[in-house]
Automatic annotation (TrEMBL):
Organism: Gryllus longicercus
Highest taxon listed in the record's lineage: Eukaryota
UniProt xrefs under PROSITE patterns: RHODANESE_3
SUPFAM superfamilies referenced in this protein's UniProt entry, alphabetically: Rhodanese/Cell cycle control phosphatase
Coiled coil, from the record: none
InterPro entries in UniProt: Rhodanese-like_dom (IPR001763), Rhodanese-like_dom_sf (IPR036873)
Protein name: Rhodanese domain-containing protein
Length: 128
């Protein structure tokens, strides 16, 4: 299944900053809720833990999805971007989405660790 993943599906920090700023993606963090509480969240992201992702995207009605996650159920052409702590679970989420027929799914390869590292670097640059 990994042969269906292409390099344009792998996003970096600059991509995430640009795309979230443009509000042109649905950013889905697939970490567990307690991880988000411990570390923080990426701006504009919604949390759908990896073990709930397939059911959420495949089996929930539009109303159930909206109620549970606070956004409309994405259609198969929605620009989904998955993130996690370091990129492993978001790659699994990407593969799940592709398997379910989502055509514009991507993942943030570095995850929250990369976000935190780069955000810290950009904040240091702004102070100087």
């Amino acid at each position: 299944m990994t042969e269906s993943v292409t390099s344009d599906m792998l996003l970096n920090y600059e991509d995430i900053v640009r795309l979230t700023g443009e509000k042109s993606i649905i950013l889905i963090d697939v970490r567990q809720p307690h991880e988000l509480q411990e570390t923080g969240v990426l701006p504009t992201s919604i949390n759908i833990p990896l073990n709930n992702l397939k059911t959420a995207l495949e089996s929930l009605s539009s109303e159930e999805f909206q109620k549970k996650y606070g956004i409309p159920l994405p259609d198969k052409n929605a620009p989904l971007v998955f993130t996690c702590r370091s990129g492993n679970r978001s790659m699994k989420a990407l593969l799940t989405a592709l398997e379910l027929g989502f055509k514009d799914a991507k993942h943030y390869a570095g995850g929250y660790l990369d976000w935190e590292k780069n955000k810290g670097l950009s904040e240091k640059k702004e102070k100087h």
